[in-house]
Amino acid sequence: MAHVQNPTTTTLGYALFATRWLQAPLYFGLVAAQGVYVYKFFKELWTLILMCVTGHATETYVMLAVLKLVDVVMIANLLIMVIVGGYETFVSRIGLQGHRDQPEWLSHVNSNVLKVKLATAIVGISSVHLLQMFVDVHHTSRHALLWGTVIHMAFIASAAILAYMSGPMVAHTDRGHADRAPAAPAPAPDHGGRRHTEPESPRPPAAAVPPQPGPDADAEARIRAAGFPARKVLEEFDQQHPRGFDREVLARLGKADFVTARRNVVFVGPPGTGKTHLAVALGVRACQAGHRVLFATAAEWAARLADARAAGRLDAELSALDDHPLLIVDEVGYTPCDAATAGLFFQLVARRYERASLIVTSDRPLGRWDEVFGPSAPALTDRLAHHAEIVRLDGDSYRTRRATSAWAD
Asked: 118, 77 in Cβ contact below 8 A?
């Protein structure tokens, strides 16, 4: 039996949630403060220019004036992080939808990331102030210099402690999400006892794929939490096997920018052409780029969402999935869906539309998804394909080719 929420409780909850908009004027007030610093910057710059033109500027004066300008810019940068990051984190999502000027850190900003960035910015500002004291050391008292150094070291220590504490917090969060992640599909052995996954391919020419990022402890934790059936990398994908394969698209997707832009990727092709390999490899790249990822087959996603609906927590489950900028839905079309399951998939796609990314693999083009999802297919595919890269993989099954070759040998 579905859980029925109390209307009064729901109304109170929404009312409390709406109070976050009280913070919006505070951020616009900081925008006004940003304007004050713009005025201060150009005033200092104009004074410096006049002093240089009239010949009254000594080398020490120029250095101090430039450091003042740098100080103003760094404080302005600090304001930008608080305004944009704080508004996105605590008030409302900023729908940039992949704008080319979107800051790299905005796609995965949260309270921990924001605190660490603010702490490091404060350390930078303190460094500039301390440098000003050393440049003008003849006019700075020993007492002021001592306390300036002590305060600067305190800022460094507090920033280091905050950065150290944020690491375990992120790892703990990743482990918590891993506990809710669907179990990785059990690989079915074939006649040779090998795992039944998408093809393991020889390494292609390295020029077609951007280099893989180096190892990172947090990235490895995200990869383990994602629930991949096996670890795949783009460099191992045999780009010569599919017919008519667009290598430039793969190179572009390998940068994981599509996750930041909240775009989707759909791999379409017959079984054994490498769809799951590419989906997992892109998921690994996304983990290395700082994004949380979850992988499951379409059947596993259907079971997970159906269980949540039966327990009366479907909305809570969909909200929890919002914490993952990328979900991977493998093998769409391999298992038929009833009307209720199709409705669940529609809710998942609609929930993430223009808010987060999906990678979907299927053995049939989107125009034939009515064979899988019935009447829900047009609305579902419309949202999925609107901001999506559709990658077609044509060719014979890589597994069958290898099996035939082994038999011939």
From this structure: no
